[in-house]
Design goal:
Number of domains: 1
Shape: globular
CATH class: Mainly Alpha
Number of helices: 13
Largest sheet: none
Structural class: mainly alpha
Helix content: 55-70%
CATH architecture: Up-down Bundle
Oligomer: single chain
Number of strands: 0
Distance between the termini: 73 Å
Mean pLDDT: 91
Order of helices and strands: HHHHHHHHHHHHH
Radius of gyration: 23 Å
């Protein structure tokens, strides 16, 4: 009989007294002790883990969005492209999470829904921050966070910065000058579609070899919004599948509210120009 395989014989570290281990580095004690169901329902654990992991992915999305914006502001297009591509993959992961949650039936959810009280994903400050960073800016959406001065300050600070699309338009302006009304608009509010911006992007799409970096930037933004739209759509269908047209726990119209969000365009001219090409 051969001896059992021992990784130590090949140099694997087996003793971690006083040394940093995998669990130490990742803070797994804190992460794995953060799932605390408040009911006896079996599916509440699924509900908690799905939303916690989504918040972790959103944490990374914010990290990448912030860095991509900085790179674009300093004209470092290539690093920004990598970050934007990663963002699309992050939203693909967020999309996949809905597939797991959809294994929860309406009957399963009713066993613990009342225990959630008024808590709702509508109150996610990270989701709100992502929307603000992408350009969907609505000061009214600060109100669900008014009980936390730190979160309100974080979101207000974001509203004072140009959105990702504002920064992209500044880059576009270097090749095709845009109207001053576009460049100096109130950045605390959503960008409104502008024919001059469509015309400028069309010039990029008509000569991609001449404006390759702007062309690639445009397509990276379209990719990102494509995945973001799918995330919203999957959210709608998951909610409708689980609760139908009941109101959300946070008081929103539930499916009706989420469907309204499907109409929001983050980078409108990049979609509208396709009709005119």
């Amino acid at each position: 009989m051969t001896d059992p395989y021992d990784p130590a014989r090949e140099g694997a570290q087996m003793s971690f007294d006083g040394r940093m281990s995998y669990g130490d580095y990742l803070g797994l004690n804190a992460i794995l002790s953060a799932q605390n169901p408040i009911s006896d329902a079996h599916d509440e654990m699924l509900f908690i883990v799905q939303h916690q992991t989504s918040e972790l992915w959103m944490r990374l999305a914010i990290h990448e969005l912030d860095a991509a914006r900085v790179q674009l502001q300093t004209a470092n297009m290539r690093p920004a492209f990598k970050m934007l591509a990663r963002l699309s993959r992050i939203f693909e992961q967020l999309n996949n999470a809905w597939d797991v949650l959809r294994t929860m039936t309406p009957s399963d959810y009713t066993t613990f829904r009342e225990a959630l009280g008024q808590s709702s994903g509508f109150q996610s400050h990270q989701y709100r921050l992502i929307e603000f960073m992408l350009g969907n800016r609505n000061a009214a959406m600060l109100r669900p966070h008014a009980h936390r001065a730190d979160l309100t300050a974080l979101l207000q600070a974001e509203l004072a910065k140009p959105s990702l699309y504002d920064v992209a338009l500044q880059a576009l302006n270097t090749a095709h000058p845009l109207p001053e009304a576009v460049l100096s608009r109130d950045i605390t509010r959503p960008h409104q579609p502008d024919d001059a911006v469509i015309a400028a992007w069309i010039k990029v799409y008509e000569s991609p070899s001449t404006y390759w970096e702007l062309y690639e930037l445009a397509e990276k933004l379209v990719d990102l919004e494509d995945y973001f739209r799918r995330w919203r759509f999957n959210h709608v269908t998951t909610v409708e599948r689980v609760i139908g047209f009941k109101r959300g726990t946070g008081g929103t119209g539930g499916v009706s509210y989420l469907k309204r969000m499907l109409e929001v365009e983050l980078f409108p001219e990049l979609w509208h120009l396709r009709t005119d090409l």
